[in-house]
Amino acid sequence: MSTIPTTEVVIFDTSEEFRKDVSILRPAFDIISKVDGVQAPVYTGTQIENPATGYIFLNWDSLAHHQTLMASPSYGPLLEVLKPAFGGPSKMHHVIFNDHPIAFQQPVTEVLVVTLKDPSYRAEVYDILTKMSDLTKKMLVFGPTLEDENVIILVGGWQSVEAHWETVANPEPKAAIERLFVLVTKDHLFHAALRPYEGEYRLAGTDN
Asked: In what order do the strands lie in the sheet with 108-116?
C-alpha cells in the first residue's frame, strides 16, 4: 500500500451558511485540488452533536507540501474563499496516523483529541491505542500531532454514533478506555458525518 499521508485536521466554528450548505467550500477545494502534494478527496462536514463545529480533513504527501502552499502567493486568495464557512476560531493540526485513515469513508467518523498528562505515559497510551486500532482492523487510527507530540488525534469509522457507544460499552474496550483517560486529558470527543469532495460532493459511506 502507498505511504501513509500527512493528514491536515482543521476543527472550526462554522458559519450559518456552511451549516446550511457545506458545498460553499467548493471554490476553495477546487483551488486546493490543483496543489502539488494533495491527495484527493477532501473530507468535510459538521459535528453531529453540535453543528456549530465543523471539520476538514485533507491528506498530503508531506507536511512540507502544505507548508509550501501556505508560503505561496495563492494562499491569501485561498483563505478568502474559505472565509464564508468559518464563523469563528479554528485550530489546525497535522498528523501521520499509524495507518491509512479509512475512517473518513464511513457514515460516522469519531474524532478524539487527547493530551498526555505526562510524557512518561506515552508508551502505555500508544500500547492501548495500538491494540484498539488492531482490534478494529485499522478502522480506528491515531497519531501524535506534528505540532505537539503530546497531543494525539484518533479517528474512528462507525456505522452510527450508537454503534460506537455500544461497542465501547463492552468490558474489554471499556476497561482500556477507562485506563486511557487516566493517562490523558480528553480535549475533544465528538462525531462527524463527513462528505468527500473530489470535483463533486458525495455522502460518506455511499457511491452517491
From this structure: 86-95, 6-14, 53-60, 38-47, 184-197, 108-116, 151-158, 140-144
Q: What is the pLDDT of residues 53-96, one digit of tens each?
A: 999 999 999 999 999 999 999 899 999 999 999 999 999 999 99
The C-alpha cell that represents 161 in the structure block:
454514533
Note whether 41 and 197 are within 8 A (CB).
yes
Torsions phi, psi for 17 (to 5 deg) = -60, -45
Distance CA 147, CA 28 (A): 24
**119: helix, strand or coil:** helix
Q: Rounded CA gap, 149 and 147, in Å?
A: 7
CA dist., res. 205 & res. 159, Å (int) = 9
Tell me the per-residue pLDDT of 100-124, one tens digit each, with 9 for 90 and over: 999 999 999 999 999 999 999 999 9
pTM: 0.93
41 grid coordinates = 478527496
Cell reading at 188: 475533544
How many other CB atoms sit within 10 Å of the CB of residue 83? 10
Residue where the block lists cell 478494529: 136
What CA–CA distance (Å, rounded) separates 195 from 172? Answer: 32
